Amino acid sequence: MILWLLSKKPMHGQEIAKELEKRRGFKPSPGTIYPALKDLKKRGLIEGEKKGKIVVYSLTKKTEKEIEKTCVYFCRAFQDIFKEHVGKRGPT
User: Fold this and answer.
1) pTM beyond cutoff 0.70
2) Angle between helices 13-24 and 30-42 (to 10 degrees)
3) What is the rounded distance in angstroms from the CA atom of residue 70 to the CA atom of residue 52?
4) What's the number of domains the chain is made of?
5) Contact residues for 71 (Cβ-Cβ < 8 A; gap 6+)
6) Which of 2, 29, 53, 63 has the smallest CB count inside 10 Å?
7) pLDDT of residue 29
8) What is the domain-level CATH number for residue 81?
9) Listing from the earlier edge strand, what are the strands of the sheet with 11-12?
10) Residue 92 has pLDDT above 60, yes or no
11) Cβ pair 27, 40 in contact under 8 A
12) What does the alpha-carbon distance between residue 25 and residue 53 come to, in Å, rounded to a whole number?
């Protein structure tokens, strides 16, 4: 989810937490967000740029390409579920 959010725009940790809260209904703690960001950075999937006292994270070029492939895979893998769900309830 963090990678998908960063594919929309660069963000700092608190922005990411707020976006996750909007989508999941609860705000993850800093003890969840920052270790995840550290791991993603260590794996070369994101990079951080210090702007004053905050670090703004963005995808690396490599990750931008992988996100597109992953989204296509996800849509193919779950399209039957989406079609069935929309078919029963109608579009929302």
Assistant:
1) yes
2) 110
3) 33
4) 1
5) 4
6) 53
7) 92
8) 1.10.10.10
9) 11-12, 54-59, 46-51
10) no
11) no
12) 28
Q: Are 7 and 62 in contact (CB under 8 A)?
A: no
Token duo for residue 9: 């725009």
pLDDT in tens, 52-64: 999 999 999 889 8
DSSP 9: S
Q: What angle do CA 41, 45, 51 make, to 5 degrees?
A: 55
CA-to-CA separations, 6 to 29, 61, 66, 83, in angstroms, rounded: 18, 12, 13, 27
Range of the structural domain that residue 37 is part of: 2-89
Return the pLDDT at 65. Answer: 81
State the DSSP H helix or E strand holding residue 71, giving kind and residue range, or none if neither.
Answer: helix 61-89
Burial of 63 (0-12, 13-18, 19+ CB in 10 A): buried
From 56, 50, 28, select the one nearest 1 (Cα to Cα): 28
